[in-house]
Amino acid sequence: MFKILVSDAIEDKGLALLKAEKEIQVDVKTKLPPDELKSIIGDYDALLVRSATKVTKEIIQAAKKLKVIGRAGVGVDNVDLETATKQGIIVMNTPEGNTISTCEHTISMLLSLNRNIPQAHAAVRAKEWKRDRFMGAELAGKTLGIIGFGRIGREVAKRLQSFGMRILAYDPFISANAMTDPSVELTNDLDAVISQADYITVHTPLTRETQHLINDKAFQKMKNGVRIVNCARGGIVDEKALYDAIKSGKVKGAALDVFEKEPPGENPLLTLDQVVVSPHLGASTEEAQENVSVAVAKQVVDVLLGREIRNAVNMPSLDTKTLNILRPWINLAEKLGSMHTQLFEGSIKTATLKYSGEVTQFPLAPLTLAAIKGLLTPICGEGVVNYVNAPVIARERGITINESKTSHLEDFANFISLEVTLASGSHTITGTLFGKTDSRIVKIDEFFLDAVPKGNIIFIANEDKPGVVGEVGTILGKNNINIAEMTLGRKEAHTSAITVINTDSDVPHTVIEQIKKSPKIIDCKLLKL
């Protein structure tokens, strides 16, 4: 008999599915204090959560029998993935359950903004009948700019085309070859979209690259009277810049379902009549909640009863013995992919995995899946890509995946090499293991090095001249940032080189900008692994 703890409320259909299994006992205990959850979790084989339960390191370490954690929803930021993976606990989510819900809410917010519906509703309820106060606009013949053209962005485009809108889409990670709808104009030029759009809606994950993507400079490039919609993540739109743009008349209005701080509290945007708001309702439909509840229930049951693993975010499907051997290689492969995307920008055409040495004696598909998951996660956001859907998402984005083995003795006897072809050219990162578990990056393009792919990493392309290391070290020291590891790589003396630095703490964007100002620095980027 397997025991499942449901610690956040899920829909009745999901619970019914669990209770229908004779080999499963279900306990529903919601709103448990962390200490109480920690005290009882040791009795359970599975845990089902939404976003309220925080599955911390301490709780996972107390879960001696736990085999699977199921998240009814997309994000898994409330689960300590690293600790769960170390303990061999499968963490799974339901990445597709709220696509339509969020799409429809985006359109609802856009229409409400465009026709002043919330303001007019409030006026009529207050027994006012002043129609001239609520003059709206028509969507027909206008241009919609979609920032981020993943599944939700595509569904929004499909529906708003029926309103007679011209659709411009910005997504630097989608190849033009992947576009099947000729009526959507796809580009990797953000300025081209925001400068032409009458309406702009964002559908990207919140990453370092998308943080305040819509900022003062972006607003300056937009048309006068543009309208902004954000039902994706708070922080993609700079709220102070948006407030200023609305006050100046540059932006006609905004519809926001998400905020940088939630609840938004005393946010100045809430004082503006031109702003329509809702409390993060993108996934709040009966259908979406039922979809994710049923999906996660099925997935957890299938794992416990030994059927299959679907939508696992932290491991592929393998027998325990093989998984234990391959786990360090899987981890390395995923980090190779993540490094690629964080280092080299542009739409991805092909990704080629090359394997050599003892690792080729085992199934390589899980390693390839891990590399693709790592490649796509910085683009799509945490929790969206997993070992099951990675190939599907790659195909949707027009990415061709290749895989090969070699027995030819090269620079390293055992290695994984990931070559990615972008619109601008190709780049290769090679990794290996020191001992049986310690990951190392040993080559980036033509540069040999010995870098630890872990934590906060500063990657610097620089001229091979005296003083670079000292100058960078001084900048980090002045900002109280301690260097944990440093490795250098170069081709020939006095040409170009790369410097890879691991730090003990987060590195603010302002520090990266300070480093870039040095005339000896060609480029500087911050990676998180």
The CATH class of the largest domain is identified as Alpha Beta
Q: Could you tell me the number of beta strands?
A: 22
Please state roughly what percent of the residues sit in beta strands, choosing from under 5%, 5-15%, 15-25%, 25-35%, 35-45% or over 45%: 15-25%
What gyration radius follows from the Cα positions, in whole Å?
25 Å
CATH superfamily of the largest domain: NAD(P)-binding Rossmann-like Domain
Structural class: alpha/beta
Order of strands, main sheet, comes to: 8-7-6-9-10-11-12
Task: Count helical runs.
Answer: 16
Compute the number of structural domains. Answer: 4
Determine the fraction of residues in helical runs and give it as a percent range: 25-40%
Topology-level CATH name of the largest domain:
Rossmann fold
Provide an overview of this structure.
- The protein is of the alpha/beta class.
- It folds into four domains: 1-94 and 285-314, Rossmann fold, CATH 3.40.50.720; 99-277, NAD(P)-binding Rossmann-like Domain (Rossmann fold), CATH 3.40.50.720; 315-430, D-3-phosphoglycerate dehydrogenase, domain 3 (60s Ribosomal Protein L30, Chain: A, 2-Layer Sandwich); 446-528, ACT domain (Alpha-Beta Plaits, 2-Layer Sandwich), CATH 3.30.70.260.
- The chain contains 16 helices and 22 strands.
- It has helices at residues 12-19, 34-40, 57-61, 81-86, 99-114, 117-125, 151-161, 190-194, 216-221, 239-248, 286-304, 320-343, 365-380, 390-396, 468-478, 509-516, and strands at 2-6, 24-28, 46-49, 68-71, 90-92, 143-147, 166-170, 184-187, 199-202, 226-230, 251-256, 275-277, 348-356, 400-406, 415-422, 425-434, 438-444, 447-451, 456-463, 483-490, 496-503, 521-528.
- The strands form four sheets. A seven-stranded parallel sheet has the order 8-7-6-9-10-11-12. The chain has a six-stranded mixed sheet with strand order 14-13-15-16-17-18, covered by helices on one side.
- β10, α10 and β11 form a beta-alpha-beta unit.
- It is globular and about 80 Å long.
- The two termini are 38 Å apart.
- The relative contact order is 0.09.
- The mean pLDDT is 92.
